[in-house]
Design brief:
alpha+beta; 5 helices; 18 strands; 20% helix; 5-stranded mixed sheet; 326 residues; 6-stranded mixed sheet
Length: 326
């Protein structure tokens, strides 16, 4: 039987947040206890990433030390240097003989229109996130990479809602699979009943509209949706896989995006999912991929439930007529 567990029960990693609340941006780091195999699947049309090519199955690197999720759009890519500094000081990284080089993969989301466009996650902020990293359950909502997240932006920020950071994990037998996600989507987030639970507000802001229906009414489409979104996720498992298998698991996890976010994987999103193998338990790839998709679906909804109203954006807690489903 599948049972829900805490995200940190998966084991083999620490999570740390750091944020600038006033500027509405931040970052979240996942620090592996050991150099861990990882895969990546990018489905959105506008990603901002660093050290993503080392996760290609044909690349030589067999594992990484950390994943950093951050705001700041492409400006935020400098932040990974702070994670490298933190790990280098602790003699952690890939041994190249004369030193150890920390391998840190990073993806950024666009939050420049929520707070200050001039303040982005820096190396110092990412270093702080590493110092904050622990084996305790991470905070959810308006924290870390979720600080400046928003959803439902098809008609612009005036009718968008606040989103944030969420987690979920499941276990069956000895196998554990979890998901961590910063939800910053063009589209709406859907509940388990198949209906929108948060996203594009109606013009009066008295309830929800429906992004898909509004898109369908624009028969010729919009010429420029702008790449101002991107949902960033990380799958963690205690099962033993190599990075080719993990790339497939990351791809299967995008099913969780598709169940919970509509539309998804647009040219205006940079949707990316990492998958990390943190243990030595024997596991079936298809089972883990299915569990990861379910965990991601639930983590996305939790990111919305946990987000509070901020920066002029309504949170789920303030949505008239809201109902919790899934």
């Amino acid at each position: 039987m599948l049972k829900e567990i805490g995200i940190m029960e998966v084991g083999g990693f620490r999570v740390g947040h750091a944020q600038d609340v006033q500027a509405a941006t931040g970052c979240t780091v996942i620090l592996c206890d050991r150099m861990s195999p990882a895969g990546l699947d990018v489905r959105g049309g506008g990603p901002a990433s660093r050290e993503s090519q080392i996760l290609n199955p044909v690349a030589a690197a067999e594992g990484i030390n950390a994943v950093l999720l951050s705001g700041g759009s492409a400006f935020g890519l400098d932040a990974a240097g702070g994670v490298q500094k933190y790990l280098e000081e602790r003699d952690i990284g890939f041994d190249v003989g004369v030193t150890k080089v920390p391998l840190v993969s990073q993806s950024c989301l666009f939050d420049l229109v929520v707070g200050s466009k001039d303040v982005r996650p820096t190396g110092a902020m990412a270093y702080e996130a590493c110092e904050n990293a622990s084996y305790e359950a991470p905070a959810e909502g308006n924290v870390g990479a979720g600080t400046g997240c928003s959803i439902g932006k098809y008609r612009g920020m005036a009718r968008a809602m606040k989103s944030g950071f969420g987690t979920c994990a499941f276990q069956t037998g000895d196998l554990k699979v979890g998901a961590l996600v910063a939800v910053n989507a063009l589209g709406d987030v859907y509940g388990a009943d198949g209906e929108p639970m948060a996203g594009l507000l109606n013009q009066e802001k008295t309830g929800l509209s429906n992004t898909l229906e509004e898109m369908f009414s624009d028969a010729e489409g919009k010429e420029n949706l702008f790449t101002g979104n991107t949902t960033l996720g990380v799958v963690v498992t205690n099962a033993a896989f190599h990075k080719t298998q993990l790339t497939k698991i990351a791809g299967m996890t995008h099913n969780g995006y598709a169940r919970a976010i509509r539309p998804v994987h647009t040219t205006a999103d940079g949707d990316s999912i990492y998958a990390l193998s943190l243990g030595d338990v024997s596991g079936d790839l298809n089972l883990v991929g299915a569990m990861a998709a379910r965990a991601m679906e639930h983590a996305i909804r939790r990111a919305v439930y946990s987000a509070k109203s901020a920066y002029g954006l309504m949170g789920w807690d303030a949505l008239p007529g809201k109902k919790e489903n899934g």
